[in-house]
From TrEMBL:
This is Glycosyl transferase. InterPro entries: 6-hairpin_glycosidase_sf, 6hp_glycosidase-like_sf, Gal_mutarotase_sf_dom, GH65_N, GH94_catalytic, GH94_Enzymes, Glyco_hydrolase_94_b-supersand. Gene3D superfamilies: 1.50.10.10, Glycoside hydrolase, family 65, N-terminal domain, Maltose phosphorylase, domain 3, mpn423 like domain. One of its GO terms (biological process) is carbohydrate metabolic process. Residues 312-739 form the Glycosyl hydrolase 94 catalytic domain.
Length: 812
């Protein structure tokens, strides 16, 4: 069952019924000002940090689920009938029709009722710290219409955590100011306010409200606001309690006429040299921000900003465009997967319908992986992000698991001890170097833990990342897992000395002896990448050391990490093997089967192919590959959080979509294009659109998890949008199945295609040149024709910037 369709020409997903199984969201903003918006106008906005600079409120896990947003109300002043063009928050008001168009960093939602049509365009202009709502109201009646239009948002008191919990204080701190029709939210947070929000309207106001209870009325909700019902705002000024912003505009429309009303919600800061007299006063620098507001309240400026945003995405998506025999592949590669990569890069895992923006910042591991799917679009932003990440690293090579995007400081609430974290920095830097060839980047001076005076070259950070693992090897010579590895829920240093007594947790890195085969495979991959980087810097001695370390760890995996038909997962605190046929449950895990093969372990002796066969036999389902089998049927203290989930969900045998692409890539490495592409299509959101009532999440972006075969809701997705799934699926399909892969020495063309294909076409920008690629035949690469000249092998050296290179890849 479908709830909409793809408009490929406009690059939009069109939702034609509002009651989607879950809120289907989109993101506004591309740089510093962001927001989420659902297909019924739910969501919120923030500046840079979803916790510390939250502009508007949103209530997670509420009933209905999607509550709080950018709501507009239309009222027929002749009859008193009112409704919301976005369906919510007035779903009991039946609409004549409805349509939501989620585009790239914008959303349009429109509907009609009683001969009046209204549509709202939401977007955040490039380079600005504001968002625009352009509302167009059309009278489709044969008679004139007297209407009222009400806007509404609820201000958050900046720190979303404090805003949602500290009511004894916050019910007394809310402050607003209204000047020349602009509502200014100026509630301070703790210290002297240096920032504020504003909410403006392009039309003369009939009234306004800034106190929630005055607008809604006592004991009322957003579905029946008293001001809308009465047809008149109260001109309330908030003093404490719950500050909001609402404008009331009256419209007279002749038959067939359309009126446009623009609302602007934005964030501003007072200049650092502004003087407060007395300290802590609520003086606003309205003079500074007013010209900006006036500019974005003009219709021509709003249209120009919208066109600029579309052009921005035209350019970004031009970095790679493919035309294959499969429409779902083209749609995801050319538009939606690339778009999700940018959003995930911007947000890490911090804010979505499933992440409140409060509990998580930017992930060290996460952000390095997100780079893999984004670096080709805007490498300069990837460069900046790597420097931010590396600056949070500790001097011993360890890493804070997360950091706050506003302060760029490590998050002490999460801490460290996730022992795979440091190795991902090597892969992130390697991806940037392969894409750009900018090896001077390695000489950038970067501090440890953001401590001034601790700066060393970025290359030294990579050295210490590898050393961190080598300094923490366990009894079998495998890396210590610490608090956890990639699987945050596999906590193998939890134990109880006496059955039935509370468990204890060892020190994250040094006190626990649990080991990870997964980190071992990741180490092999990272050590090989760092060896190449060292060689390119002329440090041949270091290159040899890193290659030897990779080879030694590969041998350790073969000796202690192989279980006869697949790679083991780990050893727990007591030395018991995890992910083995010896276990009654959790006998085989997906992660080491993927990562060990990515590191090259088992490619020469057949272990890799055997492990992948075991994945196909034991883990693959029609909806994707589950994380492990059999599922854990009860809580096991020695395994930690993984066994706290019911079977089939999340890390307990759910289809954790992030890891599936590792298997896709591994299958291409053993030459199995059919199986690789089959796995790719099982997860492809576009290919799952027909089963939206089962999948439930958005059919245009990847989800983190799909319920596994042990779950009653097998096939149901959760935690959409922000997931390493986006970057890794993009890498799997573009770099390994289609085989267009940046490398240190140039661009590789090495497809591993499904047997039914006869080739494909692609255009790829790489280091300033444009490559027009035509792949012909089936099988593996035989040779290339580069501008008509035969090149044996699959590597094309970088061309001169600005040139157009025509490449024909001949498969045999």
């Amino acid at each position: 069952m479908r709830y909409g369709h793809f408009d490929d020409e406009q690059r939009e997903y069109v939702i034609d019924r509002p009651d989607t199984p879950l809120p289907w969201i989109n993101y506004l903003g591309t740089d510093a000002y962001y927001g989420i918006v659902s297909n019924t106008a739910g969501g919120y906005s923030f500046y840079r940090d979803a916790r510390l600079r939250r502009l508007t409120r949103y209530r997670y896990n509420n009933a209905p689920l999607d509550l709080g947003g950018r709501y507009v109300y239309v009222r027929d002043d002749a009859t008193g009938d009112y409704w919301s063009p976005s369906w919510q928050p007035t779903p009991e008001r039946e609409l004549d029709d409805y349509e939501c168009r989620h585009g790239l960093s914008y959303t349009r939602i429109g509907s009609a009722r009683g001969g009046i049509r209204a549509e709202t365009l939401y977007y955040a202009p490039l380079g600005e710290t504001l968002e625009v709502w352009r509302v167009r109201v059309t009278n489709e009646r044969e008679t004139s219409a007297e209407l009222s239009l009400f806007s509404s948002i609820e201000f958050c008191l900046w720190d979303a955590q404090d805003d949602a919990t500290n009511y004894q204080r916050n019910f007394s701190t809310g402050q607003v100011e209204v000047a020349d029709g602009v509502i200014y939210h100026k509630t301070e947070y703790r210290e002297r306010r240096d920032h504020f929000a504003y909410f403006a309207c392009s039309e003369p106001l009939s009234g306004f409200d800034t106190q929630r209870e005055a607008f809604l009325g006592p004991y009322r909700g957003w579905d029946r606001p008293a001001a809308v019902e009465n047809g008149a705002a109260t001109n309330s000024i908030a003093h404490g309690w719950q500050p909001i912003g609402s404008h009331h505009v009256r419209l007279s429309l002749a038959p067939g006429a359309t009126r446009e009303v623009i609302f602007v919600l934005g964030y501003a800061e007072n200049p650092k040299d502004d003087k407060f007299d007395p300290p802590g006063s609520q003086t606003l620098n309205k003079t500074r921000v007013r010209p900006l507001i006036e500019r974005w309240l003009r219709s021509e400026q709003v249209q120009m900003g919208y066109e600029d945003l579309r052009a921005y995405w035209d350019d970004l998506l031009g970095g790679l465009n493919v035309r294959t025999p499969d429409g779902d592949t083209d749609r995801m590669v050319n538009v939606w997967n690339a778009y999700q990569n940018l959003v995930t890069f911007n947000m890490s895992r911090s804010t979505s319908f499933y992440e409140s923006g409060i509990g998580r910042g930017m992930g060290f591991r996460d952000s390095n992986q997100d780079l893999l799917g984004f670096v080709h679009m805007v490498p300069e932003r990837a460069r900046e992000r790597i420097l931010d990440i590396a600056a949070t690293q500790k001097a011993d090579g360890g890493a804070y698991h997360q950091y706050q995007p506003l302060t760029k400081r490590g998050n002490n609430d999460i801490g460290d001890g996730f022992n795979d974290d440091p190795l991902w920095l090597i892969l992130g830097v390697a991806a940037y170097l392969k894409e750009t060839g900018d090896h001077t980047f390695l000489d950038e001076q970067v501090p440890f833990d953001n401590v001034p005076g601790s700066e060393v070259p970025l290359y030294e950070h990579l050295r210490r990342s590898l050393k961190y693992t080598l300094d923490r090897l366990g009894p079998h010579g495998l890396p210590l897992i610490g608090r956890a590895d990639w699987n945050d829920c596999l906590n193998l240093n939890c134990f109880s000395d006496t059955p039935g007594e509370p468990f204890q947790t060892t020190e994250n890195a040094s006190g626990g002896v649990a080991e990870s085969v997964f980190i071992a495979g990741l180490f092999v991959l990272a050590a090989k990448e760092l060896a190449v980087i060292a060689g390119l810097r002329g440090q041949d001695g270091e290159e040899a050391v890193y290659r030897a370390a990779a080879e030694k760890m590969s041998g350790t995996i073969s000796e202690h990490g192989w279980d006869g038909a697949w790679f083991r997962r780990a050893y727990d605190f007591h030395g018991n093997v995890i992910g083995s046929g010896e276990n009654d449950e959790g006998q085989i895990f997906i992660e080491p089967q993927g990562m060990c093969v990515l590191g090259g372990v088992g490619l020469d002796d057949g272990l890799a192919a055997r492990a992948l066969d075991s994945v196909a036999e034991r883990l693959a389902t029609p909806h994707g590959i589950v994380l492990q089998q059999p599922a854990y049927s009860s809580y096991r203290i020695e395994l930690g959080e993984i066994s706290s989930y019911p079977p089939g969900y999340k890390e307990n045998a759910g289809i954790f979509c992030h890891t599936n692409p590792w298997i896709m890539i591994a299958e291409t490495m053993v030459g199995n294009g059919d199986r690789a592409f089959d796995y790719y299509k099982r997860l492809n959101p576009s290919a799952r659109e027909e089963i939206s009532e089962t999948h439930r999440c958005e059919p245009y972006v990847y989800a983190q998890m799909i319920a596994g075969r042990d779950a009653p809701t097998h096939g149901e997705a959760k935690n959409s949008w922000l997931s390493g799934t986006a970057a890794w699926n993009y890498v799997a399909i573009t770099q390994w199945i289609l085989g267009i892969r940046p490398d240190f020495a140039g661009l590789r063309i090495d497809p591993v295609l499904p047997s039914g294909w006869e080739g494909f076409e692609a255009v790829r920008r790489f280091r300033g040149a444009t490559y027009e690629i035509s792949v012909r035949g089936s099988g593996r690469i035989d040779h290339l024709l580069v501008d008509g000249t035969r090149v044996d092998g699959d590597l094309i050296p970088p061309a001169a910037p600005g040139s157009v290179v025509r490449v024909e890849a001949i498969l045999a």
